[in-house]
Amino acid sequence: MTTLTSADSATAPEAPVGPPASGRRRGRSGVWRAFLSNRKANVGFGMFFVLLVMAVFPSLFTSVSDPTAPGKFMPRLTPSGGHLFGTTSLGQDIWALFVYGAREPLIIAVVAGGLATIVSVLVGVSAAYLGGIPDDIISFVTNVVLVIPTFPLVIVLSAYAGKPTLTIMIAVLVVTGWSYGANQMRAQALSLRNRDFLESARVRGERRSYIIVFEMLPTMISLIIANFLGAALYSVLAAAGLQFLGLGDPNSDSWGTMLYWADSQSALESGTAWWAILPAIGIAVLGVAFALMNYAFDEISNPALRPVRRQRGKKLASRLRPASAPASAIAGGGGRK
Amino acid sequence: MRYLLRRVGFFLLTLWAALTLNFFLPHFMPGSPINTLRAQTKGRVSDAQLEQILTSFGYKPHENIFEQYIHYFGNMLTGNWGVSLGSSLGTPVSKLIGQALPWTLGLVGFTTVLAFLLGSLIGTIAAWRRGGIVDSVLPSVFVITSALPYFVVGLFLILFMTIDNTWLPSSGNYDTSIVPGFSPGFVGSIVKYAALPALTLLITSIGGWVLTMRNNMITTLAEDYIRMGRAKGLSDRKVMLNYAARNAFLPNLSGFAMSIGFVLTGAILVEKIFNYPGLGYQLYNAVNSIDYPMMQTLFMLFTVAVLGALLICDLVTVWLDPRTRAKG
């Protein structure tokens, strides 16, 4: 059965993505191995890991424990041994603000990205599996949510709801962020629907839920991961944008909030430029980390995209490659922001 | 034809859904708009007047909600958008939008189309010269630039350009010391003031187009009809543009329509950073001063913009791709 499956999904023209199709259980570790040997993935994961350590153990990086408390130090100190990047005009240590500010973006990325992905999978797979009129309705709703301009909606929502707490912000990001992935999940699940290995499970008399969870989802794992990375990237950027506009909790310690304060206190002009530069770098690094890992997954699921080293290899590869539209390739770009 | 009709149907249904959402949002949110407004106007406007202002965007506490809904719909569609409740209290929303629209269209519209076309071209070339210098360096570079937030790029541009060298202005839309008109000085100052925001938008948006176009091209280049084109002895340029790029461009095109929503995000952030008085800046102001009519109108217009772009891209797709015509 394993051989049948692999041969099947390797040649099926409508299979856009999917692990190297070497059976389901081995497929997962195959994705993992491919991830480890991809340079972009390694760089991206390394960047993410450094930020993660900083967020989990901030006391390793700074001795200040309550960075947002104003007036703790002299305002507008220039960088020195005591204050690596100086202090803000409100008398806070900039480096400590930056270190503790890593937490919120990371939480938002993982939680909002994760929840949005779960919703995408649920909606997309059930649309594909139900088919018919339920599918039409679900697809229509997905497309409407997809088309409605998200960020303006988020802005308007947070204006109506007042300054949002972290929970509300995550909820808003999930509500607006699931539709893109749901479309892709649906397409992928549709292409899997009539595959032999699912048919054989049906013939075996397995329950629907079993088939979806244990037969279907594992083959979609690389698309799901790519989706999570994209959703996490979107959440980080959108949340930081909201906070920068002053639509977050102004007392929270987060890179976006830092930028908001830096902007409203004209940090660039008043000699505390690091106040704005550090969080900007932080958000950029986190965003780039997710984008690199996301693109790495595109390369893993569509080997044609991998960097070519030698001319001969390229020509050979281009001849052997099955012709298929890389759905996840579209996911990777398209200005997801 | 059937394809287009379906798309128009989708357009209308989505517009209806967005307008409905827009109508019900203030109703479901905590707090009554009239209280917010009373605080906002600090007693300068009487309650009766406040209510009258609110009616223009569908708030009539004494009226049945369905009647409110119908009225709101009529008002939105006929351009009867009420008056602003923000800093320019009492000015018709349509007038304020009329003032801001050209700036956004000029800056954001132009930059977006430029980024799209330029990015697609670079992507085409990168995929065509697979393994060349362009192709080995650019993907990584563009993955990075496409993940950079607008305000980060804007911030660094401001930092490098204006603080150190005062090359380019970083705030406003034109030099106010010049009398507006079609003089070279005025046009020059518009271009100068637009340079930094445009560059910000370009840097952040071009990467996505390069990458998707490159990836589509790579897939397309493996198709049999490409080999066929070569076998016929067509020139490289013809195979690249008419055979490969034309097909690889199609997914990009639908991506373009979808990206208008993201472009609006960029417009809001970039216009805020550079104090550029376009629609995005106006939304920012409207949100800060809880200007309900302005917010509702802008949100409706943004949705219409995305839907309009979708429809245009559908038309172009029908023109580029004979298969969609055959289906109908």
From TrEMBL, chain A:
<dbReference type="Pfam" id="PF00528">
    <property type="entry name" value="BPD_transp_1"/>
</dbReference>
<keyword id="KW-0812">Transmembrane</keyword>
<keyword id="KW-0813">Transport</keyword>
<keyword id="KW-1133">Transmembrane helix</keyword>
<feature type="transmembrane region" description="Helical">
    <location>
        <begin position="273"/>
        <end position="297"/>
    </location>
</feature>
<feature type="domain" description="ABC transmembrane type-1">
    <location>
        <begin position="106"/>
        <end position="296"/>
    </location>
</feature>
<dbReference type="InterPro" id="IPR000515">
    <property type="entry name" value="MetI-like"/>
</dbReference>
<feature type="transmembrane region" description="Helical">
    <location>
        <begin position="106"/>
        <end position="130"/>
    </location>
</feature>
<feature type="transmembrane region" description="Helical">
    <location>
        <begin position="137"/>
        <end position="160"/>
    </location>
</feature>
<protein>
    <submittedName>
        <fullName>ABC transporter permease</fullName>
    </submittedName>
</protein>
<keyword id="KW-0472">Membrane</keyword>
<feature type="transmembrane region" description="Helical">
    <location>
        <begin position="210"/>
        <end position="237"/>
    </location>
</feature>
<feature type="region of interest" description="Disordered">
    <location>
        <begin position="1"/>
        <end position="27"/>
    </location>
</feature>
<dbReference type="InterPro" id="IPR035906">
    <property type="entry name" value="MetI-like_sf"/>
</dbReference>
<feature type="transmembrane region" description="Helical">
    <location>
        <begin position="43"/>
        <end position="64"/>
    </location>
</feature>
<keyword id="KW-1003">Cell membrane</keyword>
<comment type="similarity">
    <text>Belongs to the binding-protein-dependent transport system permease family.</text>
</comment>
<dbReference type="InterPro" id="IPR050366">
    <property type="entry name" value="BP-dependent_transpt_permease"/>
</dbReference>
<feature type="transmembrane region" description="Helical">
    <location>
        <begin position="166"/>
        <end position="183"/>
    </location>
</feature>
Automatic annotation (TrEMBL), chain B:
<feature type="transmembrane region" description="Helical">
    <location>
        <begin position="248"/>
        <end position="270"/>
    </location>
</feature>
<keyword id="KW-1003">Cell membrane</keyword>
<protein>
    <submittedName>
        <fullName>ABC transporter permease</fullName>
    </submittedName>
</protein>
<keyword id="KW-0813">Transport</keyword>
<keyword id="KW-0472">Membrane</keyword>
<feature type="transmembrane region" description="Helical">
    <location>
        <begin position="190"/>
        <end position="211"/>
    </location>
</feature>
<comment type="similarity">
    <text>Belongs to the binding-protein-dependent transport system permease family.</text>
</comment>
<feature type="domain" description="ABC transmembrane type-1">
    <location>
        <begin position="101"/>
        <end position="313"/>
    </location>
</feature>
<dbReference type="InterPro" id="IPR000515">
    <property type="entry name" value="MetI-like"/>
</dbReference>
<dbReference type="InterPro" id="IPR035906">
    <property type="entry name" value="MetI-like_sf"/>
</dbReference>
<dbReference type="Pfam" id="PF00528">
    <property type="entry name" value="BPD_transp_1"/>
</dbReference>
<feature type="transmembrane region" description="Helical">
    <location>
        <begin position="103"/>
        <end position="128"/>
    </location>
</feature>
<feature type="transmembrane region" description="Helical">
    <location>
        <begin position="298"/>
        <end position="320"/>
    </location>
</feature>
<keyword id="KW-0812">Transmembrane</keyword>
<feature type="transmembrane region" description="Helical">
    <location>
        <begin position="140"/>
        <end position="163"/>
    </location>
</feature>
<keyword id="KW-1133">Transmembrane helix</keyword>
